[in-house]
Amino acid sequence: MYNKLMTCLKSVKEKIDFKPETALVLGSGLGDYADEIQVVQTIEYTSIEGFPVSTVKGHKGRFVFGYVGEKPVVIMQGRVHYYEGYKMSDVVLPTRLMGMLGAKKILLTNAAGGANPSFKPGDFMIITDHITTGIPSPLIGPNIDGLGTRFPDMSEVYSKRLRDIIRKNAKECNIEIQEGVYVQFTGPNYETPAEVRLAQRWGGDAVGMSTACEAMAAHHMGLETCGISCITNMAAGISKEQLNHKEVQETADRVAKSFKELVTKTIIDM
Ligand code: HPA
User: How many other CB atoms are there within 10 angstroms of residue 171's CB atom?
Assistant: First the structure.
């Protein structure tokens, strides 16, 4: 794993000399954000030696380097999902790579299903904590001591300081914001109603197929981490509707403008 990371790092550094301060991962339907920033350079995942490449339609696969305000950022436009068949350590390789490129902070975003019945599609949720019981830990395997410790503490994966900033910015933008626990399942299937009830009883508020593993890898290597879920649909069994990817995309499109506003303000402040 370490060698693979170093190969990718070398490959990226050959293409660009840029030190990001903040990393941003764009979720399903939220990828357009990268078109709005002051772009310095883009690097396609396919051009990076050894890099796991995303196969989901609509997920662009590239790093975008540039500035949000004065802040140098690296953006993942398109992420790698466990359900595509990669090992968990490959799924979090891009996150680690952004940290190794110099990012000290990371904002993770995603589309998620609302498991908390008081949520509604189109809401944003500050991720306060997560549950990864349904997936393997991305830290399984030989520990890379250069990144972090073997048995990392997980009592504050999502930085309180950054959560406060997101809450304040949502208020300033007049965006109603929810807060809650994100439960990661493997996907690619949506959950069954019974699995959603399980997530609720565990204390989960949203369900999804990404993010928590990335947060764990980021936190392991000392990145200050935060996350925002866009609740694109109510999770299975909560509403009578069947779930489909089109609905996820449509809701994400509908709220894209407020999402972009919130993300921009947050990156500048974090
Ligand atoms: N479940 C899992 N992942 C998702 C969902 C969902 O309901 N909506 C968007 N991503």
Answer: 11
